[in-house]
Amino acid sequence: MQTIEQQQISSIASEGYARVKSYLEKLGAPFYDSAQKRRINNTSIVEITDEVAQYLGGSSKLNGNRFYLKQEYKNPFTESVKGRAVASMVLKSIETRAIYNKSGTKKHWVEPTSGNTGKGLAEIAKLLGVEFTAVFSRLDVSDEIKAYLARFGANTVTIGSEYSLGDLEAFAQKRGKKVSYYWSNFGGPNEDTQSLVSNKVTEERVKYSGKNSDAFLKEIDGGLLLDKLLPLGLEASNLPIISRAQNGEFEKLKDDLLAAIPELSDQNQIVAFVCPIGNTSLVISTLLNQLGFANVCSIQGGLKSLRTESGITSASSEFCPVPGAPITKSSIEFVKKLVADNPEECFSFMQYDNIENVYAHEMMTGPELQEQIKGLDYVVCTFGTGGTATGLAKYFADKRTKVIVSFPDRPVEGIRTLVGADGLAFYKPELYEEVIKTGTTALEAVLGHFAKNGFGFGPSAAVALLAAIDVSENQKEKSFAIIAADRIENYESEYKNIL
Predict the structure, then answer these.
(1) Which of these ranges, 26-30, 100-104, 365-369, 404-408, has the smallest mean pLDDT?
(2) Class for domain 4-88+356-491, per CATH?
(3) For position 316, what pLDDT does the model report?
(4) CATH topology for 160-329?
(5) Is 415 within 8 Å of 384 (Cβ atoms)?
């Protein structure tokens, strides 16, 4: 028999479930109604064989193969494939009362995301009157996605960003930003260290921009680093302080940081920390992220990796003042720790582990494709959390349709490389027909060609389409469905030349 408190929570949950369901249904968003065990709404499919032929230079190069686009970017909820997973995760969490604490109050939602899942959660959070924070692990989340989140009142924070020197310089050049490098270790850099970093930065800048410019390491004040930043950074890595910072604590420390590192106040600057191995840098950048500084990251591997790339070995490259420190290295670990330490205040849908992410495509997207394309041979998609790829693979496991998963050969917005997928809960290569590493030199050409023909899909769909074209070269008279995961407008600042 339910207590009065349980009855009240049940009533609140039922009302919330009905409200979200009605909102999605009226919006035209596809979702699975578990109560009625039926699919509601769908996304369109369109044949793009002629457009592929134009891109390749003639229909003779098609080998009789046909290409279709599953237009997930036309989902009115998030304008992406992630709308399905968000709908399933939210409805299930309301149904199981997971988003409520013991008093029936809604918990603060916190989610690791690269964008589209965060967009959906922000939209539903506003509908239900819930506070929501999107947690990023990279600086290169598009300005358009950040603006969308802000429109729905979401908080954003970037935690533990680590970049290789090349990736950081490429990102900075593309966004028209400058990078200031700071030494995050006591003792300070010597002239050899200064020269090494300067030479490596110059190499990368010439590679990506053609401009030759020096970059010298700057020093953080030793007292500030040792007395304040390092101890609080270790504390923040073990027990996140983000909520304390948002409530007004650490204002004096933030003023001290702005005085010591003036670039923190300039959004056209990126502040990158370097230490001998990288641990200290990651601790410091994670702390500053939680204090509200969004333009901060660390150099992956620190000086050690730069020395290795240069063929230099030195005993000093093995030194780090906090060896083995328990550092939160990603947005996923950060959110898990935050929720574990604050179970009555914080809740995460944790899309990387949430089976509803997979069910959304096993129960909905797969059946839709089977109905929309008779005799479908291949479905080609990319990989973010793995929900789409693994959900489709599970649905088609005993059917003629095969699932191909494409990974870009370099970082592409919103999806993972093959290295980034390894170890994730929903990466199941044994279920896929084939895993392909796709070259991305033609990425912008594909986006431009299809945008001119009225198909405004984003970069992940271009990667999947390139993979489908590669596979089709050794096939005849087969059908390929490409999952067009989101819109190119989500990345307007990245692809201005195309739009």
Answers:
(1) 100-104
(2) alpha beta
(3) 40
(4) Oxidized Rhodanese; domain 1 (3.40.250)
(5) yes
